[in-house]
Structure to design on (125 residues):
């Protein structure tokens, strides 16, 4: 899979920094348009244990501080089947971007989708 670059910012010298929407790899100081760049996407790389723990701790903290609101079971099912499972970053019941567990369970501590305060790190739900 190749990176899907978009222009992230323009430098004072007029050159551009492009960022992959999937793996966040950056291509620095180029005059090429993003669609001309061809790089192997790093999206298949799983987040480190430290990143997964940090992401989970932040999600649970937000959820608990908000009073532990849960999504309806039908909404959890829809998100899981229509968004997460077909996603190229989904692997072994986890989001490949943040590392959180995503499944059909209504228990927020075992399923990020169930936490009404949370959203997809790729902004898909």
């Amino acid at each position: 899979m190749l990176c899907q670059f978009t222009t992230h910012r323009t430098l004072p010298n007029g050159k551009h920094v492009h960022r992959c929407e999937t793996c966040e790899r950056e291509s620095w100081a180029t005059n090429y348009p993003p669609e001309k760049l061809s790089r192997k996407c790093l999206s298949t790389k799983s987040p480190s244990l430290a990143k997964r723990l940090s992401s989970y701790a932040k999600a649970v903290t937000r959820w608990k501080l908000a009073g532990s609101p849960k999504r309806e079971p039908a909404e959890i099912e829809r998100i899981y089947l229509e968004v997460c499972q077909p996603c190229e970053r989904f692997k072994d019941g986890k989001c490949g971007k943040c590392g959180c567990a995503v499944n059909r369970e209504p228990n927020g501590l075992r399923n990020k989708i169930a936490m009404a305060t949370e959203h997809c790190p790729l902004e898909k739900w």
Notes: DSSP finds two helices and five strands in the chain. Residues 5-36 form one domain. The helical segments are 49-65, 73-84.
